[in-house]
Amino acid sequence: MNSSESFDSNTPADSRDVDHEDADDAMLDVLLSEVVGGQSPPDQSRIIIQRLDDTLVRSGSANPSGTQKTLRPKKTSTSTWPVVVAAVAIVVLAIGTAVGIRFRNGINVAQKPTLPVPGEKSVATASIPDSAPGNSPSDAPEQSPKSDTPSGNLPSRSIELADSSSDSNSFNTESIGLFERAQKNQGEQTDSPPPTPREMTLVSNVMSDRLERYWDRVGVQPTGVMPADAVSERLQTRFGIRVPRQAIGNSERMLAALSQSHNIDALSVRVLSAIASRPPESMTSPSDQLMATQVNETLRSGSGFDQLCASWFTKRDPSARRQPRGGGKPIGPQTNGNDQRAPTASFNELLRPLDEHETLVTTAAVTLNADVRCQRCHDLPQSGGSESRTLGQHDYWQLAATIAPWIPIRPNAPAGRFYDMPDGRQRLAQVDPDADWPDQLLGSRSLAEGLVGAMWKMVHGRPLASSPYDLSGSAADSDLQRIRDELADDLLASDFNLLRTIALMMSDSIVARSTPPAMTPAGVLTASDADWTGAVAAVESFAASPPALMPTSLSHRMRLVQQSSLPQISGGGSGGSVLAQPLGIEDSESVNGGNDRRRGTNDPDRSQPNKGEPAKPSQAVLAGLPMRPTVVMPAWIGELPDFESRLQHISYLAGLGNTPEAATKLAAQMQDARVEEALILQRIWWIIRPQG
């Protein structure tokens, strides 16, 4: 073929351009096939070689004058490639979008299991109406048989949560694995060689350094240390133990003193009451006395308290009769006319006076070091543990379903335990298959941390670390958590020698701290708001001791407030004429005259100053009853709809299932007297809060 043939006049002017476009389309097809995937790209070598030959021929026969006809192929190629690149970009974007949507749908399917096909029955679900607008099948509620649904559970309606979270999808679909965590801690403990206990003096020094660092960081000035004789007297008054002055501040001597028979006898009941979250004066049943004897023997042995706790989880007798709260005849079938059933040492008997929620809160705190006071309704971050985690509503009910056979709560349904979600739907909480209960308690770090928390509250009167949702306390502080970790490590290393842990706590500087001047009888009447607020902060931070007259019994605190005079409103009916003095001062005839006449002149709780003598505060004032609001209420309190709801949630923070009736009446009286609501809530919290 010569050069003249390549430019035949009979050939269309743009035939060569069409060939180039076909070649470009073929290359685009190859590129798309490689991007999208599939079979191997077709062989395009013939088209490429043909195009190369045509280019060489055109180059050899080009017109020297540079006519537009020789430039047309280059112009066409230049204008085509941007189109090719844009098309490839659009295709890649479309493919990425499709893959992303498919991946997202896969996650949703994994989070929301598919419903059973029609005609098949599921244990946790029932028929779902198709007429509900806007509800997909995966969002349809789960229904339980009426016979398995408790009548006293949460109402099946939309509940306004304190964290303003009502989206059901925000709830975790999987459990965090409370029991898996306990098994992990147990496995780490058993796989490694048994640790050797450190010197008690070294542990005490580490605790003291942590406390000093904590006080410096929070800006609290600790009060002075009392003489050793005064500290020894304080321990005898609070715990009934006799400790020589030489043992004050010395952990090894303190352990030797506590190991004496009379001191172990005095501590046994208090240790058991701290584990059960019950006042010591209530530990009077035959089962309580039997378990106190076992605690006594274990404390004497110097080890094995984890084995004792595990042995208390025995399957309950279905025929056992439940002792109703507040006394009365036991509920349930009787064994015989005289009820000669032998007492048993079990958590089922120990926690019988508590209601279901209090039982779960107590059991989780001691055995799993888990705070589930609010998890019956909320998903909340968990603080104070050895790792960050979130405990949800499902974890709470799965805990109930798993340990129900061992504690005095409502038995499970055959499929598990149904509960109401905040949006009104029902969900099934099944028994945790990973729970090896109660064998997992043996050597468990979670149990060690829980026992440390219970003993700290017994010795120092307040929890070591509280929730950030509490009204007071030291929530999620790193130094306090390290103190707990040090004590838990020592308890594990000593093979659960709980008496050693108590000795370490009783020999720290917290026990020897004096009461803040603003809380003493001489300073309570003259203390300013700043003085009182600083005193409260020091007590809450373990930098000072609470008032010496502060009762440890809830019933005693309730009685003190009930016997004290409330602020009275003058006969004029003015809303601003509320008594501005601290509660309990009775030196104003114009305000308290009627109350004085009603009480009489021989009332032992009433202070009657003589002429020229300053007024004396009442016993409630000396016991540390809040005189003015000193706690900044958390934001979630304001989210609750009314005063009754806020009062109820204060009780939940105290680990109670309901507000005590006496506390409810007292709150109503203070509300009628137009006491500030924040002060009412703080006083109720002072009465019912967890204390040793």
Description:
The protein has 692 residues and is mostly helical. The protein folds into 3 domains: 3-62 and 69-111; 178-325 and 344-512, no CATH class; 549-567 and 617-692, no CATH class. Helices cover 47% and strands 2% of the residues. The strands form 2 sheets. Strands 1-2 form a two-stranded antiparallel ribbon. A two-stranded antiparallel sheet has the order 3-4. α6 packs antiparallel against α16 (478-493).
Quick tags:
mainly alpha, disordered N terminus, single chain, 26 helices
Give the averaged pLDDT, no decimals: 73
Number of domains in the coordinates? 3
* Global outline: elongated
- Please report which band the strand proportion falls in: under 5%, 5-15%, 15-25%, 25-35%, 35-45% or over 45%: under 5%
Distance between the termini: 109 Å
Strand order of the largest sheet: 1-2
The percent range for helix content is: 40-55%
- Helix and strand element order: HHHHHHHHHHHHHEEHEEHHHHHHHHHHHH
Class by SSE composition: mainly alpha
Radius of gyration: 37 Å
* H/I helix tally: 26
Instruction: Outline the low-pLDDT stretches.
Output: 1-12, 64-77, 104-176, 321-339, 567-609
Number of strands: 4
Characterize the largest beta sheet: strand count, sense, and whether it forms a barrel: 2 strands, antiparallel
